[in-house]
Design goal:
Length: 196
């Protein structure tokens, strides 16, 4: 049995939606997407897809990236290779932040930055309910489905609680693990084949 057969995705959705996660297959050898978990923010097959890599913390805090926010030592995560000089945020504070867009029940994308600054100053916005990302991941029309057909990604689900409770550096393993025995081989495969 060849490696492609060992790591073939057994079941997958070719119709992902906002709020799904994309789990990269273990052979993906890419700086941004290797062992990544991407939260889909928007998916319209005719227009393309947009999401954030959610499991790759950078060695920087919000205060190190920008001086536009109050002193905030929350970590910043690598969101993706597109617009990697722009800061985005995901949070559970939807009703408190005007113009926040729901991703799923209890989890929101963006919103009014001035309100967020006030919530940071008062301690209402903190690391347990707000995360920041540099850049995003984007796909042109048809591109994501093409990658799903090639078994590059496995579509799965996540809850708002899991988003904040699962440690980002353990997300790939944790979400593969919850898929059960068909994907046990994924967890045993080393990040670098040379390490085996």
């Amino acid at each position: 049995m060849n490696l492609d057969e060992c790591f073939k995705i057994r079941t997958n959705s070719l119709d992902p939606k906002a709020g799904n996660i994309l789990i990269s297959e273990p052979l993906m050898n890419d700086f941004h997407f290797g062992r990544s978990v991407v939260l889909l923010i928007d998916h319209e097959e005719s227009e393309g897809s947009f999401g954030l890599i959610i499991n790759k913390p950078l060695k920087a805090s919000v205060s190190h990236i920008t001086d536009e926010f109050p002193d905030f030592e929350a970590p910043v995560y690598l969101g993706g290779p597109v617009a990697d000089n722009q800061l985005f945020f995901i949070h559970t504070l939807g009703p408190l932040i005007p113009d926040a867009d729901p991703i799923m029940d209890g989890l929101y994308w963006g919103g009014d930055a001035e309100t967020l600054k006030t919530l940071i100053s008062t301690g209402i916005a903190n690391e347990t309910n707000t995360r920041f990302y540099l850049g995003y991941a984007g796909w042109d029309s048809g591109q994501l489905v093409s990658e799903l057909v090639r078994n590059s990604w496995l579509v799965s689900d996540i809850t708002a609680k899991q988003f904040f409770s699962v440690s980002p550096d353990r997300m790939w393993q944790a979400f593969v693990n919850q898929l059960g025995s068909p994907y046990e081989m994924w967890l045993r495969f080393p990040k670098n084949v040379e390490d085996n």
